Amino acid sequence: MSNTPGIPVSKPVAIWNKDIKVNFRDLFKSLGKAAVDAGFGKWDSLAGDAVDTLGALGLGADTGQVAWLLIYRSLMQAMRSLVEGNKDLLVKKEGNKDLLSKEIDFKVLCNRLDKSLQNSQLVIDQNFFERPKDLPLFEVIKTPFREWLEDCGFNQPQAETISNRLPSYFVDALNELWGNHPQDYASLKEKLDTPFTKASEREQRWRRYLAWLQKQVEEPMFLEAFGLKQVYVPLRAYYHRKLEVEKNEEFERRSREDNKYEQIVVDLETELELWLEKGERNDAIRVISGGPGSGKSSFAKIFAANQAEKGQISVLFIPLHHFDPSDDLVDAVGKFVRDDGFLRHNPLQQDEGESRLLIIFDALDELAMQGKIAEKTAQDFVREVQKKVDRFNGRENRLQVLISGRELVVQANSTDFRLHQQILHILPYFVTEDERKNYIDTHKFLEQDQRQVWWQSYGKASGYEYTGLPSELDQGKLTEITAQPLLNYLVALSFVRGTVRFSEDSNLNAIYEDLLKAVYERGWTGYQHPAIQGIEEKDFVRILEEIALATWHGYGRTTTVKQIENHCENIGLKRLLNIFQEGAKLGLTRLLAAFYFRQSGVRAEDKTFEFTHKSFGEYLTARRIVRGIKRIHDELEQRENDLDRGWDDRQALAHWAILCCPSSMDEYLFNFILDELRLQNLSDVSNWQQTLCRLISFMLSHGMPMELLNRRQEFWLENWQAHNAEKALLAVLNACARLTRKKSDIKCPYIDSFGIWISRLRGQRLDKDVLSLKYLSFLCLQGSILHIQDFCGANFEEANLEDVEMILTNLVESNLRYANLRGVNMARANLQGANLSNANLENANLSNANLENANLSNANLENANLENATLTLVNLKQSNLRKANLKRASFFPINIESADLREANLQGAYLAQENFVDANFEKANFEGANLQGTLLEGKDLTKFNQDLDQTPISNPHQL
């Protein structure tokens, strides 16, 4: 092999001689004609002809000409990819009709290219192959390419953005051409020591894959000319660090608040790069946790691309919705890379493994979309990863793994991630000054409002020239919405359209609805393809809703055509689906991929569609469920008016089961349903609330009518599906009640019916949060028996637990730790022995309640009504009883150490043998109170501060 330092690639004269059939002018004319004909479906043949013609030049002898051919081909292929990827922006514009009917004059462009290239010289050497993006030719060619794009009809910012993406597309094309046509460039191997010429086939495939990773972040976002990289803002994150145990006031305060950790803010990419550099074999797994749209997947792609460009470690990026977690991890990775097509070897095989490998598993929540069964799949996957990492790193660090996932799924697996800094929680673009107090931010990262940075980048890339976040978007609920990366972008798209009126009460679902309309208007009108003629907007949205429901029932983000067909056939949309499918066959999936889904492969010989952003699927599923509620209500109402029409309760519940039984509702979908209900007429929501109460009452008496479903399942599966449908019933009822603020009156057939049902829905607790227990607010449960129930963390806000018929609501020995009982009516309730530590009972009515032996330590009882309550043996240590009504309450004996009783009303209360250490009675009313046996007995309370360790009491009454 020669040690020639470089090959001069000044323009081969032969290429510009008239004897050569193809020159710059002809090539660009072919490229231009391809764009002109893009709207008529001839792009592939014309653009392909242009590239193939280059290969027929016969320039094989001269090394400089061969090098030029490689660069030339790569440039043409890169330009072709760029134009093809953005052609929807061109051909959908009304103003381009005349432009598309004639050829473009390329004389100015070609003359400028010829002149620039005649005065330039290009030399390729080893540096070129190591850093092909630094090729000086780009500076020459980008300007005429941009001008040509503008001539085609792109606006100036779009043309600028597309031309700026040329280098990344060029590198990808360069790697592909060298890998696919090595024989064309054989003479280069004799002249240069390059990563291409020295590399084995395996190394070349890695180079192609890493170049592809870099190209991914340059590909257009939705129907935009720019890619993720152009508007990406580096993310901040935090990790938990255990507080050092110190006997001081601050530690005691934090301990009382059950907060034994501090949150350390870091720059996410810098933190992970340091982790990679350290390469400790016993600390080889990191987890990124964040809510939907927090930027997890965007960061994962950017991080993969950046590490690939550095070239210090091999990077494998695996979206988990394309991954089979049921296999052994090594086998599953091998199957994934084979299906992906870039690598022919398994990088995890012992004899083929890399010396250093980073695997990024994106979206752990994709493995947890079907209730507890899939949650176990996610847990098994995490443990399998840990096991394999330990095995690969037995003697030295070879494998590091980065996993991203939504908060709830990461929390469910948090016990498997116990190392220091192992879980990194993504922070929003904007953190309020008050919220910053919750973090240790040594580098002042949180002082920057990253929304301003994003909007500046977006303004530049889109041509709208925003200098920061528009002031009308920095108010009310929009402040929180724009702080989340994905939602901020959706707001930008809708804001540019100008059809949504943004206010401090803006509803996120209204923005999604506007974007649905935008997709239809931008893609399905104007130059409408013959295969989809006749589809109206309402039918377009209706089909998307059914596809979303099918994905929720299936794999979370993907579904098969067969599943979609079954749904559509059941509801009479088969004809519209046939039109849609024909469109997909004719290559219109780019349109749908812009926001919602794309054809993503084959499952069991059936084509699959996939949502590109899961939150769009959740939004559309929420719309479909709300549509189902409306139909159920209407059908029941019809039956009320005409016995020959509509549905009875069993049929209505069967329809609900069809909608909701295959999958378990989670908090994310619930929030979309709640916002969708906000867009409905409140009187309709109130009627639906009553209908759902009626269905639950029927279900408690007769069970879910699973026998009415078309296809019967095994008992265990049918039972699990019924559980899903019942949980969804309770959740949607609660969503209605939160909006109407009315009580939900469920008619329980027996006094223990609700207790039995909630026990079934709660199931075996896996962690502190149980979703069904969050949906108990505004319920009427008078007279219910709830013995020894586990309501830890439950939300009973504004529920009615009063027994108007004097049959005590019984919560004996129930666990109500951390429960939200704000404003609840528990008059005369029996809470004997209940655990209410850390519960929120603000404004609750506990008059005449029996709280004997109850634990109310750290509970919030501010402004609660405890008149005549029995508080014998109650623990009120560190509780908040500020402004509480304790008139005639009976305490004997009690621990109220460090309790806050400021402004409490203790008039006529009976306090016997209590421990008042550090209690605060400031402005408390003791009129007529019996202080027998307490530290206060016989005391002159005006001197209370001096006599009892300075315990603060101001303006007390003299007893």
Characteristic terms for this protein:
single chain; 959 residues; alpha/beta; Rossmann fold; 5 domains; 8-stranded mixed sheet; 3-stranded antiparallel sheet; 18 strands; disordered C terminus; Pentapeptide-BTB/POZ_domain; coiled coil; P-loop_NTPase; Pentapeptide repeat protein; 5peptide_repeat
Structural description of this entry:
The protein is α/β, with parallel strands linked by helices and 959 residues long. The chain has five domains: 7-229, no CATH class; 235-437, Rossmann fold, CATH 3.40.50.300; 449-506, no CATH class; 539-612, Arc Repressor Mutant, subunit A; 617-745, no CATH class. 45% of the residues lie in helices and 8% in strands. Helix 19 (329-340) links the parallel strand 6 and strand 7 (357-362). The relative contact order is 0.04.
Uncertain spans, ≥5 residues at pLDDT below 50? 10-61, 91-106, 246-258, 523-532, 584-595, 804-808, 940-959
Mean pLDDT across all residues, rounded? 77
Q: How are the strands of the largest sheet arranged? A: 6-7-8-5-9-3-4-10
Q: What is the oligomeric state here?
A: single chain
Q: What portion of residues belong to β-strands?
A: 5-15%
Q: Please give the count of helices.
A: 36
Tell me the structural class.
alpha/beta
Note the gap between the termini. Answer: 105 Å
Number of domains: 5
The proportion of residues forming helix, as a percent range, comes to 40-55%
Shape: globular
Give the biggest beta sheet.
8 strands, mixed
- The overall strand count is 18
Radius of gyration: 34 Å
